[in-house]
Specification:
Layout lengths: L28 E2 L4 H4 L21 E2 L1 H20 L7 H24 L8 H29 L17 H11 L1 H4 L5 H13 L10 H6 L1 H8 L3 H7 L2 H21 L6 H4 L11 H24 L15 H17 L2 H4 L6 H18 L2 H11 L11 H11 L1
């Protein structure tokens, strides 16, 4: 996730279909249950229908996916905070590598799942521009000026072709979503995406433009999410899966503890080719397949423990892209200002706990509705002036005027 190579159980009602959000991040909404479901199971808190009162049912967000998005973004922020600690702590490095195995894959799988309805319809293309492309430009420029000031680097160039730090995800999501129609017509989409990722990791000539290595190497997770069905998420919510996930996570931590001094965590960033990491090309093939398998297993284990009901943090799931992009200023600022070098106690166990709590708290605040309202101009600009009005919009305007 960083731009530097680091050494530094029951059966439930089906999940809702996907909807394309305005801000470029999956924003699930649960429709009212089908007639047969209404007599067999009560509506969940996140998908309650107003049909009983006779009023028009309102679409509401599904708590499971909002919870998953929030928890994943908290893990992203915490992992960024752990990075400076891993040089002096093998345990921190093991935890860092374990979390890096699944936190962004989980987020990307959800993004793919809620991109299933994407097509080239004008309104969806508009949302793609205003919810992904425009925020990319804004934050790429903002990050550049921040680095110039905070890192005393006035020569830092503004380059929209070279995503800096966290903005790579916006580029990737833009490209992935544009390719959705193609993935719907090919056979064996997930193996094909995995083959593309494998070819990318052994192709050092791809270069850094638009961070294409990350776009291609993370592609299989988006395609996997694109073809996920609601019952798959029901499957991982079974009690036996939750119980099995405990020894799986424990085994992953032990494996990471063993691997920490023997490999570089740069493999998990998926930003470089095997050759750029000083490994033979065949190691890239092995690592791509192995990491994909590990990521899928740990992502399933993560989903198994995501609450399905409404929680205090469920509402924050709508603001995860805000938290993701905004927390980067503090994450990078802590490096530029030498906090981890100036305060040695942060490298002690209590300091590591403190850093984790602060990171989780900061990203939580940045996902709140007040922060969303404050930065909506950058994250969800309407920009009606930039687009032609389509026939449906003109019809609505005429209906209002009459």
């Amino acid at each position: 996730m960083t731009n530097s190579v680091h050494p530094h159980g029951r059966h439930r009602a089906p999940l809702p279909p996907a909807q394309v959000p305005a801000d470029g991040v999956p924003t699930p909404r649960a429709p009212h249950p089908p007639p047969q479901a209404a007599t067999t199971a009560p509506p969940t808190p996140a998908g309650r229908s107003t049909a009983q009162s006779g009023s028009k049912p309102a679409k509401q967000r599904d708590a499971f996916f909002d919870n998953a998005k929030y928890l994943a973004i908290v893990l992203v922020a915490m992992a960024h905070a752990w990075e400076p600690l891993t040089d002096h702590s093998r345990a921190a490095e093991a935890l860092y590598m374990t979390v890096y195995t699944f936190h962004m894959p989980a987020f990307i799988v959800i993004s793919g799942y809620f991109s299933r309805s994407f097509d080239m319809r004008p309104d969806r293309l508009k949302r793609l521009v205003t919810g992904i492309a425009v925020p990319y430009v804004i934050f790429e420029i903002a990050y550049t000026f921040f680095k110039r000031w905070a890192d005393d680097d006035p020569g830092q160039p503004i380059s929209l072709l070279d995503p800096w730090y966290l903005t790579w995800f916006l580029v990737a999501l833009f490209v992935w979503r544009l390719t959705v129609p193609l993935w719907k017509i090919v056979r064996w989409p997930v193996p094909l995406a995995l083959a593309i990722a494998t070819l990318a990791v052994i192709s050092p000539d791809i270069g850094d433009d638009l961070d294409l290595q990350r776009v291609l190497q993370f592609l299989p997770f988006f395609v996997l999410g694109l073809f996920m069905k609601p019952e798959y998420f029901q499957l991982v919510r079974r009690r036996e899966v939750r119980l099995l996930s405990i020894p799986v996570f424990a085994s992953a931590l032990l494996l990471a503890y063993w691997a920490a001094p023997r490999m570089t965590s740069a493999w998990f960033y998926r930003r470089d080719s095997a050759q750029e990491l000083g490994a033979p090309w065949w190691a890239g093939v092995v690592m791509t397949l192995a990491l994909f398998g590990c990521s899928v297993v740990l992502t399933a284990c993560f989903f198994a423990w995501v609450p399905r009901r409404q929680m205090w943090f469920t509402v924050l799931g709508a603001g995860t892209l805000y938290g993701y992009l905004l927390h980067g200023f503090l994450a990078k600022g802590s490096r530029f200002w030498g906090w981890f070098e100036n305060y040695e106690w942060l490298h002690q166990p209590l300091g590591e706990i403190f850093v984790s709590v602060v990171a989780a708290s900061v990203v939580t605040v940045l996902c709140t509705p007040p922060v969303q309202r404050m930065f909506r101009f950058a994250m969800e600009p309407k920009m009606e002036w930039a687009f032609k009005r389509d026939a449906a919009q003109l019809a609505r305007e005429r209906a209002k005027s009459t």
